[in-house]
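User: Second chain of the day. Same drill as before.
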Amino acid sequence: MKRGLQIIIGMLSLIPFMVAILGQTSGLGRWLPAEAITPEFDSHYRYITGFYISLGVIAWWIIPNIEKHKTALRIVAGAIFAGGVGHVISFWQVGAPGPLTLVFTGIELCFPLLLIWQAKLPRRQSKTG
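Assistant: Same format as last time:
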């Protein structure tokens, strides 16, 4: 049970981390034509991607002792869920994003369910756990 949750969180944490690394290195040029990008917009985008990198690193710190880090996982899950809510608001106000963003939004909105899984883990498990 613990190993399964560790694997799921490890795999899911790779998505924002890798997207953020691409965002840091290529900026908005990967998504928008050059004439639509201002220095402030690009700078802010790269700044925000730093938060996604940080979430990935925090998730990796949580994984080895996942049963002990309830507060940290709640913070990460809350941040990811809040990002999903932002996607939903954008969907309502601006329009539907591409299919990949819709898939990511579904994952983000379901992320708090991992807290239920974590809550079922014993506080301490044996080394074979």
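Helices lie at 2-26, 39-62, 70-93, 99-110, 113-119.

User: Great, on to the next one.
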